[in-house]
Amino acid sequence: MKITTGARQSVPGLVLVVLFFFAGCGGSDNQNNTAPPQSSAAPAVAFVANQASNNISGFTVNGSTGELVPAGPAVAVAAPFGIAVSADGTLVYVTSQGAPAGIAAFTANPATAALTPVTGSPFASDGLAPFRVTVSPNRFVYVTNQNSNDVSAFSINVQGGLTRVAGSPFSLGPGVFTPAGITLSPNGAFLYVTDQGSNQVSAFSVNQTTGALTQIGSPVLVGTTPMGIVVSPNGAFAYVTNQISNFVSVLSIDQGTGALTQSSVSAAGLRPTGITITPNGSFLYVANEQSNDVSAFTVNSSTGALTPAPGNPFPAGTTPTAVTVSPDGRFLYAADQASNDVVTFAIDGASGALSRIALVNSGGVTPRAIATPGRP
Most buried residue, 68, 117, 177, 196, by most Cβ within 10 Å? Predict the structure, then answer.
């Protein structure tokens, strides 16, 4: 391998909102991994999971500057670790390691970022120490459980609540433990999970009707302590941060079977953790906890190879842990775990370089995750 440097709603109204979410999802007959185009009309909101202060803070986004504007009081969630937002911004799911552990579910106002708990929330995780979460475009939610070494699967009902998928939780198999990052292919056909304990990535096919998982072959070895993972919008590549190896693994995806193959690696900063990619697939960003910066790369759409963007890396706050981009691809947000803030960067649309433009308090203590609608 080569290394390169570098407000509560009425029930009828809620039903319409969630039906709109389903209508915008990819159907089960979609057999390719091409992501639907993103537009500047996507909801301009963001949500942050603050672990130590046991809350979720919401923000609206200034459409001109990209700056985050606090939406109001934070919402209580015990020890939140992961967060995911539906593509239309109306549903938010949060993993909680409090007592009892589970998944907190909210409906969200996509204009104001106001959150309302879904009836029945939080939902039991069916696993131990729920960690990261992802939302399928095909109405399912998946969660990694670090202490039971499995993945929980849920279907989303019309109110936004969760129902356990038959067979859940799904084992990662022998020799695989401490699952961490989790993501889906753009059409929801394949699921990928990083495993910190065995330094591998597992692949699953997703039953588009039931949400059940079937493992694809054997896990693929990557670097040491893999954490974050993201799939390119064209579904051809997966990118993994390796916290101890300090690089990003590039994996090729067989778009027919979902199987993974090692391709290359690219050097990141120190202890790379969070990772995200722009909606057009041109640029990839990594949060480096120990070097307090963000690595920026341009992406070769044919090979998946990464090239450092001009000026790489870019200083963030203290211990940046998670990154996400705005749905229109113009701005990057980095949540800083130790300085309890979020840095906003403007993305140069030609080079992928970052310009720091704003800093805002995360709305709590120890922000561990940040998410925008439909964005990893």
Answer: 68
Backbone angles phi, psi at 156, to 5 degrees: -100, 125
Mean pLDDT, the chain, as a whole number? 89
Q: Which residues contact 84 (CB under 8 A, 6 or more apart)?
A: 92, 93, 133, 134, 135, 141, 371
Q: What is the pLDDT of residue 36?
A: 34
Q: In angstroms, rounded to a whole number, what is the distance separating the alpha carbons of residues 20 and 73?
A: 27
pLDDT tens across 31-52, in order?
Answer: 233 333 334 456 799 999 999 9
Give the pair of three-digit tokens for residue 367.
């922000």
Contacts of 105 (CB under 8 A, 6+ apart): 91, 92, 93, 94, 117, 118, 120, 121, 122, 123, 160, 161, 162
Q: How far is it, in rounded angstroms, from Cα 253 to Cα 242?
A: 19
Is the pLDDT score of 151 beyond 90? yes
SS3 state of residue 245 = coil
> Coil, helix or strand for 196?
coil
Q: Are 94 and 102 in contact (CB under 8 A)?
A: no
pLDDT tens digits, residue range 119-145? 999 999 888 999 999 999 889 999 999
- Residue by residue, DSSP assigns 293-349 as EEEEEEE-TTT--EEEPTT-SEE-SSSEEEEEE-TTSSEEEEEETTTTEEEEEEEPT
Contact (Cβ atoms closer than 8 angstroms) between residue 201 and residue 239:
no
Give CA–CA dist 201/213, Å, rounded: 15
Residue with tokens 């995911």: 84
Q: How big is the chain by its Cα radius of gyration, in Å?
A: 18
144 near 153, Cβ under 8 Å?
no
- What φ, ψ does residue 13 adopt, rounded to 5°? -65, -40
